[in-house]
Specification:
single chain; 6 strands; four-stranded antiparallel sheet
Length: 98
């Protein structure tokens, strides 16, 4: 599923390359057996070994765009208060794994 797909992206991206990823954010769940909603912290944890976060923006539940937002631990834990927002992650592939 999503884990296999995410790790496959790392295999085709060159070191220093950019991955632009947008996903639904909010409390983790699968809606209607179709849409997976991710907690922001889950994506950060998933990317930690292969990527560094180069930027983050999101669209909140009211439809407002928040650009180039710094992520605090509290905001990552509660996905910026979104129930079904859109997280826009900019990841840069590491040259060497930590």
């Amino acid at each position: 599923g999503h884990l296999k797909g995410f790790h496959a992206l790392s295999k085709v991206l060159k070191p220093g390359g950019m991955l632009y990823l947008s996903v639904p954010i909010g409390p983790e769940r699968i809606d209607f057996n179709a849409n997976r909603v991710f907690a922001v912290q889950t994506l950060l944890d998933l990317a930690r070994d292969d990527y560094e976060l180069a930027g983050f923006s999101y669209v909140d539940d009211a439809g407002a765009l928040h650009e180039d937002v710094a992520i605090t631990p509290e905001q990552a834990a509660n996905s910026f208060g979104c129930q079904y927002g859109c997280g826009i992650f900019e990841f840069r592939k590491r040259h060497n794994r930590p």
